Amino acid sequence: MVITLTPQLEAVLSEQARRRGMAPEVLALDALREHFLPASAPLEPRDEWERRLLEAATDCGVSLSDAALSREEMYE
Fold first, then answer.
1. Residue 27: is it exposed, middle or buried by C-beta count within 10 angstroms (0-12/13-18/19+)?
2. How far apart are CA 26 and CA 16, in angstroms?
3. DSSP letter at 72?
4. 36-59: b or e for each residue (b if 16 or more CB lie within 10 Å)?
5. What are the backbone angles phi and psi of residue 39, rounded to the nearest 5°?
6. Which of 8-12, 37-41, 44-48 has the highest mean pLDDT?
7. Is 65 within 8 Å of 59 (Cβ atoms)?
8. Using only C-alpha atoms, what is the Rg of the chain?
9. Please, are residues 54 and 48 in contact by the beta-carbon 8 Å criterion?
10. Which string of DSSP letters, residue by residue, matches 4-62?
11. Rounded to the nearest 10 degrees, what angle do helices 7-20 and 24-36 cross at?
12. What is the mean pLDDT of residues 16-36?
């Protein structure tokens, strides 16, 4: 499949890809995947312990660096 972009869409896609440090083609494919492919199936707990663990977990969306978790950083 070949998709022809308008000059305006191509410019926006190229700029966003440059800001993210990736190729425009990769950004376009990622956006299409995110929009059209279903999210992965939710994790089903196998027992009560896993169910409680999954209920307690919260997706914060980011991971802290090792430096941020050091003893010195925790007390500042």
1. middle
2. 11
3. H
4. eeeeeeeeeeeeeeeeeeeeeeee
5. -65, 160
6. 8-12
7. no
8. 20
9. no
10. PPPHHHHHHHHHHHHHHTS-HHHHHHHHHHHHHSPPPPPPPPSSHHHHHHHHH----S-
11. 100
12. 93
What predicted TM-score, i.e. pTM, was given to this entire model? Answer: 0.50
Predicted pLDDT at 48: 93
Assign 76 a pLDDT band (cuts: 50, 70, 90): low
AA letter at 8:
Q
For residue 41 the two structure tokens come to 């199936």
Residue with tokens 């660096």: 65
Which is nearest to 43 in space by CA: 29, 33, 57, 31?
57
Specify the amino acid at residue 60. C
Task: Provide mean pLDDT across the span 61-67.
Answer: 74
- pLDDT in the model for residue 69: 75
